[in-house]
């Protein structure tokens, strides 16, 4: 096992949902973390991270920007591992190229160019997504056992169709292209499915929470679209990043997903605790209604036709065998997530 406590490690997008749990686990291991943030003076965003340790010298903040070339140089100095988690996660944007693709791709190239100039870095762990593996659930119909694996790539997304998935795909591909140009450092990629579980701190802004919020705020009270989805606990995603860093044999891509599920099952997980207090969906949305209402909530009819009624299935065996991941209960993660939304008066 590689010892991450010997040298600092760097985490981009440090105030993000996954990054917060990653930093928490790194600090608990005794690591020194260089946390990259856009505004190191934003006490509201940094407070949850600062509360994770009573040894402030082991958590240092650096001002960085995905689109500012060279801005990661100081933060990366002396680090042996770089965790690149920073990337936009939002579905509805005004300009997909500007708001999704440019930060994801140019940011990744910016970070990796700095890695090339930093001799201490031995490994980069990149947060990608299963969105880089597939575009729509219908894509699985032509696959063996109709199951996504690390061998598959998203070939159907574009700026016009599923631009978020497109941004994750081109960003990951650009990372693999970069790593082939040198031989000093290696790359391991984590491809999580839909991430659930509580956030660190009270500022809950991830799009993951928006989906869970819709289960309880009445948006889906007439039914949930029957669309397959993979689910994984945020703490397992953080752990997968660490395992990818400390295990010398870790290589390539890893699908990190605990459960092949769907929205109605997510509501079923919440029903025992919240079914009498919130209008959780109890049935599937009729296809005609989804077709009618989809565009009103930012879902195109093309996406509806390629996802509605289709299951989602992925093979997580590589993450279990090579990273040693033992997946947590999704029911517990979603209930903890919902409880946080409730306590924050966000429902």
Automatic annotation (TrEMBL):
Positions of the NAD-dependent epimerase/dehydratase domain: 9-251
Tagged with keyword Phosphoprotein: no
Keyword Oxidoreductase: yes
One GO MF term: oxidoreductase activity, acting on the CH-OH group of donors, NAD or NADP as acceptor
Listed name of the protein: Dihydroflavonol-4-reductase
UniProt xrefs under InterPro entries: Epimerase_deHydtase, NAD(P)-bd_dom_sf, NAD(P)_dehydrat-like
Keywords recorded for this protein, A-Z: Oxidoreductase
One Pfam family in the UniProt entry: Epimerase
């Amino acid at each position: 096992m590689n010892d991450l406590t010997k040298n600092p490690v760097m985490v981009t997008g440090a105030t993000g949902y996954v990054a917060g749990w990653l930093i928490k686990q790194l600090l608990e291991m005794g690591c020194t973390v260089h946390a990259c943030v856009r505004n190191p003076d934003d006490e509201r965003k940094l407070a949850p991270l600062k509360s994770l340790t009573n040894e402030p010298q082991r958590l240092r903040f650096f001002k960085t920007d995905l689109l500012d070339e060279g801005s990661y140089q100081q933060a990366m100095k002396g680090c042996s591992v770089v965790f690149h988690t920073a990337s936009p996660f939002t579905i509805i944007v005004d300009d997909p190229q500007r708001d999704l693709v440019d930060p994801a791709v140019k940011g990744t190239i910016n970070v990796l160019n700095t890695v090339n100039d930093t001799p201490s870095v031995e490994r980069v762990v990149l947060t990608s997504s299963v969105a880089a593996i597939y575009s729509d659930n219908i894509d699985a119909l032509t696959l063996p056992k109709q199951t996504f694996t690390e061998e598959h790539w998203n070939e159907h997304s574009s700026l016009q169709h599923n631009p978020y998935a497109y941004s994750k795909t081109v960003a990951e591909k650009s990372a693999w292209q970069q790593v082939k140009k040198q031989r000093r450092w290696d790359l391991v990629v984590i491809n999580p499915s839909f991430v659930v579980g509580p956030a660190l701190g009270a500022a809950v802004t991830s799009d993951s929470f928006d989906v869970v919020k819709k289960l309880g705020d009445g948006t889906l009270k007439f039914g949930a679209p029957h669309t397959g989805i993979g689910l994984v606990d945020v703490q397992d995603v953080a752990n997968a990043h660490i395992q990818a860093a400390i295990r010398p044999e870790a290589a390539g891509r890893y699908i990190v997903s605990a459960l092949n599920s769907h929205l109605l099952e997510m509501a079923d997980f919440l029903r025992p605790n919240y079914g009498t207090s919130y209008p959780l969906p109890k049935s599937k949305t009729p296809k005609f209604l989804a077709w009618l209402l989809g565009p009103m909530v930012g879902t195109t009819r093309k996406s509806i036709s390629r996802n509605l009624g289709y299951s989602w299935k992925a093979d997580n065996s590589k993450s279990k065998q090579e990273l040693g991941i033992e997946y947590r209960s999704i029911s517990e993660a979603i209930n903890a997530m919902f409880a946080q939304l409730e306590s924050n008066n966000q429902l």
